[in-house]
Structures are given as structure tokens and as C-alpha cells.
Amino acid sequence: MPEATQVHGLTPLAGVVGKYGLDARKALGQHFLLDEVLCARIALLPGDLAGRHVLEVGPGPGGLTRALLAKPIAHLTAVELDDRAIIALAEVVEAHPGRLSVLRQDAMKFDGVGQLPAPRQVVANLPYNVGTPLLIGWLRQAAQWERLTLMFQEEVAFRITAAPQTEHYGRLAVLAQWVASCSIGLRLPPGAFRPPPRVHSAVVVITPHAEQPGPALFRAMERVTAAAFGQRRKMLRGSLKSLGGAEALLAECGIAGDRRAEELPVSAFDALARAWLARHSDPIQDAPVQDGDQT
After folding, report:
1. pTM here?
2. pLDDT in tens, 49-85
3. Domain 215-285: homologous superfamily in CATH
């Protein structure tokens, strides 16, 4: 197990919360990881970070920030909304001149691809309230990211890595596994955080495939999976009706209409998305499908 190291002059991590009045706020989805050894373990999961430009979302007191800066990364960009955390991180910026930028930004609006040179990665303990939409945004840009190492509530981690015909398999599993290899690298109990959340957490390592779908095909996959899992108890001939020509679409892909979405492997959804896209030149113009499945 890696040993935590303390940079001379920095407030010990355990003392940052008290020094800067950085109590976790529910509205910001904050649960702080103050165990330096666990932060160091998470920083090992992305693999060799030498020369990488890394994005961290919601650094809070800076435990993971410090662990990442202990690696030979080219630069770390930390995006944070909490002014208290930004003040607390100022001493980390000073201790690592030229290696850390802390930006007061809404991560949902931050253009990581535009702001970070390649090769780029994301390593983050994501705020619970925006973790899933952030992930989907990065999956749309998977070709631009070398790896995503992300902490979620454990249930979300299960939904990302689930296999077909299992409890957690749904849209998120299909979208993530379609563009990347996904695995759980570390599980953490509530007691690892301050304050402890009500659920366990897990770090998911997401490594994009060498070949990636174009934007139109990705939108088609979003549309197809929204329809299929939005009414997941229905047979596909019923749940895909909103796409138009469901029976013909299924027949073209060699999929029986009486099957259900959770039974199909990712490859079958790939076939459906490609076939549907071939019939629709610009799927983004179509009316959105209401998704009854928890993404």
C-alpha cells in the first residue's frame, strides 16, 4: 500500500476542513475523502500519468489533488464551485508552482477538451448530484480522453459496469461499455468520508476504445437506448415503437421482437443504432424520448 507524503509547509489534510471552515454541503453533493492513503491508492488507478494533463472535478479540501500532484503529471486542472475550497487550495497551488490551476467553474459547463492539451485524463471524486450527467458528457467525447477514473455512488458504479441480464444493466452500461472498457478499481465504505454518505462508493476506471462512434451515431445510440430502457418491462417490439418501424428495424438486425432490452448485449444495441441512423439523417432533430430508466 502506498505511503502518504506531506509536502513541507502545507496544512495537514486532516486540518484543512477546520482551518478553512470547509464543512461539507449537501447542496453541492460534498463528501470529503480525507484519508491520504486512500487518496494515494486512487491516484494509482489511472496507471502511468507521466506527461498527462489531468482534470479533477470537485477537489474540495484537496486530498486527491495532493495525491495526483505526487505523480509526474504535466499539469492538473481542478474545477471547483465552492469558494471555501478554492481558498483552501491556494496553498497547494503555491506549493506546486506551475503544476496546478484551480478554476471557479461549473463542471457541467467546463470544456475540458478545449482547455486541456492531449494526452488528457479525468481523475475525480465526483459530486454525487452531477456524476452521471458529467460521465455521459465525457462518453460523448471518449475519443478525446485517454482514461476516466471516477468515483461514484456504488450503485452508479454497478450500473456502469453491469453485464446483460443482471439487475443493474441499463442505458448507462450500454453507453459506457459501447465506447470503453469499464471496471471497478476500488470500493470504499461510507466511513471513509466526512461526513459519511448513506451509501458505499466505488471508483470506476473507464478506458476508451481505439475506435469511437461519430457524434451522429452516438446520438442515435442515445435515442435507441432511451426508447428500449424507458419501457424496459415491455418487449422490444413495443418499447421501440416510438422510433418508428420497430418490427422492421428489429428484423433487419436479427433481433426477435419478443426480447427485452436487458437481454441484449451491447453489440445488439450497436446494430440497432446503426440501422436506425441509416434511416434518419439527423437524429438530433427528432423529438426526445422520455427515459423511464435511471440512466
Report:
1. 0.91
2. 999 999 999 999 999 999 999 999 999 999 999 999 9
3. rRNA adenine dimethylase, C-terminal domain (1.10.8.100)
